[in-house]
Amino acid sequence: MAHEDVKSPYYLPPGMPAPKPAPDGLDTEFWDAARRHELLVQRCRRCDAFQFGPEWICHRCHGEDLGWHRVSGRGRIYSWERVWHPAHPALKDAYPYIVVLVELPDADNVRMIGNLLGDPMRDIAFDAPVEAVFEDHDEGFTLVQWKLTG
Amino acid sequence: MSTDEFTVKDKVAIVGIGETKYYKRGQAPVSEFRLACEAIKKAADDAGIAVTDIDGFASYSNERNDASRVAAALGLPALRYSNMFWGGGGGGGSGAVGNAAAALVAGYAKYVCVFRALAQGQFVRFGQAPAVRALSGPAAYTMPYGMSVPAHWVALRTRRFMYEHNITQDALAAVSLAGYHHAQFNPRAVMYGRPLTREQYDKSRWIVEPFHLYDCCMENDGAAAVILTTADRARDLRNKPAYVMAAAQGSGYRQGASVENAPDYASSNFKSLAPRLFAMAGITPRDVDVAQIYEHFSGAVILSAVEHGLCTADEVMDFFTFENITWPNGKLPINTSGGNLAECYMHGLELVNEAVRQVRGTSTCQVKNAEISLVVSGPMVSPVSDLILHG
User: Fold this and answer.
1) Which of A62, B59, B75, B287 lies at a 20 to 30 A Cα distance from A106?
2) Residue B144: its chain A contacts at CB < 8 A?
3) What is the pTM of this model?
4) 8 Å CB contact between B242 and B355
5) All domains of chain B, ordered by start, with CATH?
């Protein structure tokens, strides 16, 4: 359980791939906002549908005028898993770790992937409430992590 | 024009099957391309046709050994059809067969070969994340969090389904033990002579919960191929034809939505396909005698079986027992060659070969009087595909 040994403020060890905004500009705002500790979900300006991951067209009305909507950062654990096999070299000594799939009720239940901070061996309930935590990396990006609330 | 004319049902058959020796990853002594050619030659031999009679190819999952190179290497007089099923994973295993069938019914070609060659020892491993410094696009929302390989998203879907329907590890173990059991009768199987007990299963390391090591497919080197032709030609060939009774492919509503945003998430993505498949075949799920269901990971077999009506979600714990899904006594033997878990991970094309053997009566775990043989390809990716053969 490397999370306890490592002095790093990050949930996973250094060397994991960093997120980079898409070269076509599709999600620059999302990653810029995460840097400011704001969580954004793409939203259609014409029909108000939420969608995630981002896309160039609204799946509901086919509108092309898509904006970004700031959400509270509160969600619930739709599914989760405890990962033991290091599929990336950087994870060689850093397992198990928890991956959560979080649903955001204030954005039409779109889902995001992240890690659940804290002891990876604890029991985790489906549908448990969580809140976004912004993990700033020195390299200039911010990951959106999750912690249990309530 | 009657609706009958818009179906491939009974108009096409698989007439030849072939495969190389199956190897553990990294152990094939020859190149992946040579493996592909060998499987194709064996399938032609099995069909009783000349390799040069082949005039079409279909494959899936970005098969590296492209049809033009193969056609040139084998000196085919003409390539009349070449087709690639979109999407990754094993989702196109049955779809490539369906596309070959469609081409034959349309008259594009006379003998279409579906093949898949995969030497994970010579190219990228599916179970390893790319060691890159930065990622953009959908992967930027998953890989930095260590959610990077198929095991991870299949586990997330499976766990939600298990939670919603009170399914325990016992059902997953049954799938794994069944595959290993069947492989013990199959000399082609990489795990032939390597039986698995429940105790070994329970003690094996977790890859990602709920998948132990033995819930996960192998990584292999090898190649497999099948040859299809029209029913009228099939009748005169060497082996008993395995007629294509139905083939379907596709995806449910936004199953391809990125970052795990398929609205119907705890799904194998067969809810929209299975009704079409059985409607084309004109049979019900009860009529299926034997099933080959793609198992990159055991849990996906369970969701696929439910979505094909082989059992309901509430019946999973009664249906998925070792006794019920194994040859010779099970009510519905599943993955009778050992499949992806224990025969060879030939991206699920080995499951098509086994489905053909079952209707020919030549499986090493031959289900008595098997007439209706189901193949399910690549659950939980998009698009997916499925196939029913009959003797």
Assistant:
1) A62
2) 12, 16-19, 143
3) 0.96
4) yes
5) 3-123+215-390 (3.40.47.10)
